[in-house]
Amino acid sequence: MGCVKSSNNDNGRRVRRNRISRPAPWAHTEPITRAQLNAMRAEFWNGIPQYGGQREVWEALRAAVDAELHLAHTIIDNAGIILHAHDLTVSFDENGARYDLPLYVLSEPTNLING
Questions:
Q1: Which residue range(s) make up the domain with 99?
Q2: Number of domains the chain is built from
C-alpha cells in the first residue's frame, strides 16, 4: 500500500514505517468558536465505543493526535496502527478494523473565531 513505507532493520527484516503529516487546511460549514470546537471533539472522543474497533487503538490515536509529530510516529508504530492516510484520518489496526478520525479532532479550522 502506498501509505506505508518499508525499510530494512539491522537484521535484514522488513519493518513498516508510518509517516504522519499534518492534515490539509479545512473550514467548518460556518465559523465556530473554540468552545464549540472543543465540544465537538469531546463528543467524538466520548462516543468512540459506538464506532467499533479496539479501545486501546482509539486511545493510541487520541494520544497521537495530542502529541508532537515525532512522538505521534512512535505512538502509532508501537500500537501497531497502519495508516491509510498520512494525516491520521483513516487507519487500521493489525486485525483490519478501520478507524476514521474527523478533521475537527486533528487540526484547527481556518474559520475559528474568538469567543
A1: 38-107
A2: 1
